[in-house]
Amino acid sequence: MTIMQIIFLIVGAVILGSALMVVTTGNLVHAALWLIVTLFGVAVLYALLNASFLAVVQVVIYIGAIAILFIFAVMLTRKEMRDRGPQLNSAWWLSAIIALLTFGGLIWILQGWSDFARLPGDFPTGFDAVGLLGNALVSPDAFVLPFEVASVLLLAALVGAVYVAFNRK
Amino acid sequence: MNLWTDPVNFISHWLMSLLTGWGIAEWLANFLIQLIGVVVLVSMMMLIDILLVWVERKVVARFQDRLGPNRVGPFGIIQPFADIIKLLIKEDITPDGADRVVYNLAPILSLMSVLLLWAIVPLAPVIFGVDLNVGALYIIATGAIGALSIIMAAWSSNNKYALIGAFRQVAVMVSFEVPMIATMLIPTILAGSMSMGAIVQSQNVWYVVIAPLAAIIFMITAIAELGRAPFDMNEAESEIVAGFHIEYTGMKFGLFYAGELMHAFTFGGFWAILFFGGYRLFGLENLGPLVAAVILLAKALLGYWVIMWVKYTMMRIRIDNMLSFSWKFLTPLAFVILMATALMNAILRSVSSGVYIAGMFLMNLVIGLVVIEIVRRQGKRSRARVEEPIHRAVAHP
Amino acid sequence: MIPLSWYLTLSAALFSIGLFGVLSRKNAVAILLGVELMLNSVNINLVSFWRYGDITQMAGQVFSIIVFAVAAAEVAVGLALVISVYRRRNTVIADDIDMMKW
């Protein structure tokens, strides 16, 4: 059991535990806060995978923008400061069965893949992943087109969200 | 390597040999040494924080033409200790209906997000926490945690006014993050890397000469991120009493207050690192790492003084003016400067350094003058629109 | 050395938990929280395949950045819709938003 494996097990337990709290807790603001713990765990996971840029971008975008948006939305769509009543609908046992079947099915399919327990290649020190990523995002024979289309998508989402949520008095 | 030229490595090697001599396993000794390093850095920062309380109160007093604390010790220097003792012995009230876990966690997260920033500050060429290759983004990430702690504090206080203050404050912080990222990209482009150490090392000419507009906009957005006047929505005392920390008493409020002061000092430090050469001062930093650290802290204090100067001179701006200032003025301006800097950097890359500096400075000057002219015309037009009925009423016979 | 199977199992479990959240929650905002969990699990998959494959091929990281952008856009529009519905119908329970049912 190397140190990295222990760290992975701890981080994995944090991610799965807080994800379970997100989907079962009754208090919605608590659910948003547990989501933040999950997102933080995923950021640590990216750092374990040597994707440092993605780890920081995860914190900036997910925790710094999306989670705050969720908390605002939860606070703006309640009639009073507290939640009441159960938060799971009447068919929750069926959803649990479907979720378990999905998990089992995914693992069963992956088991049949020969390379399932592949070990990582080594990561040379001084490997400029950020520079390569930047080049890939703007070079014409790499991924500049999806990058530009994603920016158009964000513009459309911006205009759409402002228009939909606009309060015409 | 000896203690003067490379103190961190020297001390850690000595400690490692000491600990393994006692029979401790190497990985545990390594872990303990890292832990000691973290504790030393955090303790130094908290000591500076105590000094900052005194500095703040003296400076605000001088700006308001009075003396400030001068009774407790020579020049009032023991005043912060009196403040700390007062905060510690206050009664610790938790409001009825507050969410206890979140209520207690919020001030801790607020202070933690500031202390995390000091991990990437290069105090000297050999004294730094970690030289992250995405340092500029890391600053934004910790700002995001700070915004989160404000919402947690306000919501868990079970208080409508706290919630309103926090909503406004977080809206301001999130809006001003966009021009901040754009202006932080300018030293990144000029240095070729996002890491703070690389940005300092490549400032043979301070970036404030090459990109003065970026320095100004970074300072404005930093003041907005800090939540200080003229952008202090969280302490709009005439409007919502004390904002998101209404319900906090005693040392929890002390944590918020200390965190705010240290946050301001930290952003003074980042202003110095990104635009004023960091620990470099015409070669003085080669005298030794401690000299370099003192130079950086002195520049950080100067940046902190500028932040305090702005706070105690300007009035608070109304919330909708604040947000439109960010989205309609600063964001387009920051992106225009970013594009112009990248363009000029690519064009002038191979000329001599004098022509380069003059070219970039002139480009900034031109953009600044054009922007001032546009804003002046806009202001004249909107003033004419408001004053026209008055003129018509007066001129009517 | 951590085998790839650990990462894939973790992301499959996170996906299933997100799926449970989407299918079983009453509040519309809570359903969107489940969707976020599923998108995060997909991202973990993409990044771990980048790391365990050829690290000079940036396709994994680029795809994951596009997923970040798509998730942010979807959350923004989704929450704008939820807030707009709340203003008209004064509820965010997904079962009560049934004006188009016959």
What does this protein structure show overall?
The complex is a heterotrimer of chains A (169), B (397) and C (102). Chain A has 6 helices and no strands. By secondary structure, chain A is an all-alpha fold. The longest helix of chain A has 25 residues. With 397 residues, chain B is mainly alpha-helical. Chain B has 2 domains: 84 residues, no CATH class; 258 residues, no CATH class. By secondary structure, chain C is mainly α. Chain C is built from 3 helices and no strands. In chain C, helix 2 runs antiparallel to helix 3. The N and C termini of chain C lie far apart (58 Å). At the A-B interface, helix 2 and helix 3 of A face helix 5 and helix 6 of B.
Keywords, please?
heterotrimer; A: 169 residues; mainly alpha; Four Helix Bundle (Hemerythrin (Met), subunit A); 2 domains; 6 helices; 0% strand; B: 397 residues
CATH class of chain C: Mainly Alpha
User: Strand pairing plus helix content of chain A: what structural class?
Assistant: mainly alpha
Whole-number count of domains of chain C: 1
Give the largest interface: A-C, 89 and 72 residues
Poorly predicted ranges of chain A (pLDDT <50, ≥5 residues)? Answer: none
Determine and state the CATH class of the largest domain in chain A.
Mainly Alpha
Please report the distance between the alpha carbons of the first and last residues of chain A.
63 Å
Q: Can you name the CATH architecture of chain C?
A: Orthogonal Bundle
* Rg for CA atoms of chain C: 17 Å
Strand and helix order of chain C: HHH
Instruction: Classify the helix fraction of chain C into a percent range.
Output: over 70%
In CATH terms, what is the fold-level topology of chain C?
Helix Hairpins
Taken together, the total number of domains of chain A comes to 2
CATH homologous superfamily grouping of the largest domain in chain A: NADH-ubiquinone/plastoquinone oxidoreductase chain 6, subunit NuoJ
The CATH level-2 architecture of the largest domain in chain A is identified as: Up-down Bundle
Helix tally of chain C equals: 3
Overall average pLDDT of chain A: 87
Mean pLDDT of chain C: 89
Shape summary of chain A: globular
Beta-strand percentage range of chain A: under 5%
